[in-house]
Amino acid sequence: MRTIINFILKQHNIIIFLALEIYAIIITITYSDYHHNISYSIINEFIGNIHNAYYSLYKYVNTVDENKKLANQNAELLTELLNFKDNNSFATDSNIEKIYKAIPANVVYLNVHQRTNYIIINKGYNDSIEPDMGVISSEGVVGVVKDVSANFSTIIPIINVNAHISAKIKKNNHFGTTTWDGKNYRIVQLCNIPYHVKVRIGDTVVTSGFSTIFPEGIMIGKIINYNYSEGNDFYYIEIQLSTDFNSLNNVYVIKNSLKNEYKKIENKIKDVQ
Amino acid sequence: MYNDIPKHIFRFITLILLQVYVLNNFLFLNIINPYVYIYFILLLPFNIPNFLSTILGFSIGIAIDYFTGSLAINAIATTFLGFLRPFILKLFAPFDGYEPNTKPTIEYYGLSWWLSYSSLATFIHHTILFFSETFNFHNIFFTFGKIILSSFFTILLMTLFQYLFNKTKSQ
Asked: For labeling, which of A1, A131, A161, B118 is most exposed (least CB within 10 Å)?
């Protein structure tokens, strides 16, 4: 017993080092579980508040730019609204407009230069935000909500190496999945588009609507490069994102009111199988 | 030495804010991202116990990780750096050792000592950081390019800090 205590006292430096290092490695490899323990929620609120203070300062300095952007966005929305009213004489299914609800939020922290980028926004479960909701901006897709505390939420953006969003080529409806190689925050890759599909530079890529996260047809970006290697059934396609993450500020969290119903049906299918 | 504690705490907080809000948002040439928060670890006093430098290394790394949501990759690198720091200091020690009441700065030990000390530390830290970030050895040349260029900018900025903030103290 005494030898063990002596050993610990003698080697305390190495033991502390190994303990801390193993703890850090486990968090990194298992991808996460510190997000789910109790302390995280408290720390998240604290850090969210610091991010918020910085954001207020940043916003104060950049008000003019932001106003211009909002004015443009307003104009676009107005145009859309007018078009919608115009078409509405044909619309019979009044349910369509009620399925999705957009909750506006502001980005208080974002990073685009890591491989596992994160965004933090200033709305949380107090504003009925839940994990796995989609997040978009006026320019296009942003990402998916991961963790929620009282007043803040963490979002995994499309430019995170672990993010995969179901997408399709707008003109021919062939669908695939986006991935990111972690290099350029303006460009993501589109996988699983089979070789027989006709692809052209400049084609628009939008969300597929196959999950309850995003509605169909939200802009992701435009194809800027593609190639095909021998012995591979799929294209390698690069998409220029329509969302400029570096200047991202106003986002909308999408709430899908049919999500629970969809989940129920999905679980039933699983039960049958 | 102990009346320097507020100064170290101040440096700890300032470097985190600088790293999270300024440096992480600038990316030169698309791949260079300096991580100057290790300046805190490099400037810890000579006489602190080894286990404390490991713990302080872990603290600043995990703080950065909490702020940026980067799991614990910074903590992996800084814990290692904190653990290794006494050995790096020993490696570059002058002939008769470090004198009491001195700090690991250019002011006391000169530019060439500072550059060799900070370069080795930065390179070790960046290598671990970038490899724990990618977690694989594909694109190994790309990663090495990132490590070398980012290390260069980190050392440059830290040396700049030395000239900016230590001159006034010596007067």
From this structure: A1
Distance CA A33, CA A26 (A): 9
The one-letter amino acid at A258: L
- Are A207 and A228 spatial neighbours (Cβ–Cβ below 8 Å)? no
Q: How many residues does chain A have?
A: 273
- Asked whether the beta carbons of residue A28 and residue B68 sit closer than 8 angstroms, the reply is no
B59 in contact with A at a CB cutoff of 8 Å? no
Across the range A24-46, mean pLDDT stands at: 66
- Residue B128, H or E segment: helix B111-134
Q: Which of B30, B58, B76 sits opposite A25 (nearest CB)?
A: B76
Residue A35: what pLDDT?
47
Give residue B103's region: left, alpha or beta (phi > 0; psi -120 to 50): beta
Nearest to B54 among A13, A29, A113 (CB): A13
pTM: 0.70
The model's pLDDT over B47-92, given as tens digits with 9 standing for 90+, comes to 888 889 999 999 999 999 888 877 788 999 999 999 999 999 999 8
The predicted structure's pLDDT at residue B168: 46
The CA distance from B120 to B128, in Å, is 13
ipTM: 0.82
Enumerate residues 104 to 123 of chain A having a beta carbon within 8 A of any beta carbon in chain B. 109, 111-116, 118, 120
Computed over every residue of chain A, the mean pLDDT equals 80
Q: Where are the domains of chain B?
A: 2-165
Contacts of B23 in chain A (CB under 8 A): none
Those residues with Cβ within 8 angstroms of residue A185's Cβ, 6 or more apart along the chain or in another chain:
A112, A113, A117, A159, A241, A245, A246
pLDDT tens digit sequence for A38-81: 455 677 778 888 888 887 777 777 776 767 677 677 767 766 66
Give the span between the Cα atoms of A133 and A101, in whole angstroms: 11
| Interface touch B27/A113, C-beta < 8 Å | yes
Size of interface A-B (CB pairs under 8 A): 88
- What pairs with residue B158 in β-bridges? none
